[in-house]
Amino acid sequence: MCPKITFHTIPYDKNNLEDIQIFYDLIKTEFGYSLVGIHDNKVCHVSFQDDDILNLDKLKANWPSASLIHDPEDVKVFAKKIFDGADGNIDVLLKGTDLQLSVWKQLTKIESGTTVSYERVAQLVGKPRAIRPVARAVATNKIAYLIPCHRVIKKNGDLHKYGSGPERKKMMLTYEHAI
To answer: Which end of the chain is more exposed for a tag (fewer CB within 10 A), N or C?
Structure first.
């Protein structure tokens, strides 16, 4: 079972984010190491890396003015909900354009164990001719796995690219019995 996601958003053009504190930790998961970031009890970042050497570059790029605070204990609670299939609710903080927000919310409706094409996602968000912008929105997802961009594939069945590497995408889809 997956947690129920509640979305919270920050306007994409909001520049005054200095007062934001993000608590983070590097978590060992089924799919490698994951950097998880939390702001105000909301997940705001999930990315993957190949080793246990902490790399905050992706987190800093998405939240350049935020104060980053290492907090393993609190972050573990959220990581358990994200990666262990725990029931319950989880709040997510998103920052993006209207199209990105629409795409990311749509991705959470793709059931585990299934995949959809970029074209289908474009149709579902009401932009059937905007396949490339939709694909770009999928690729810029900052909350990997929880917002399951890994479930989007090419129309011909090719797994295509994945920000954390195509091997990790295949690993996730295999784990979910989608391939």
So the answer is: N
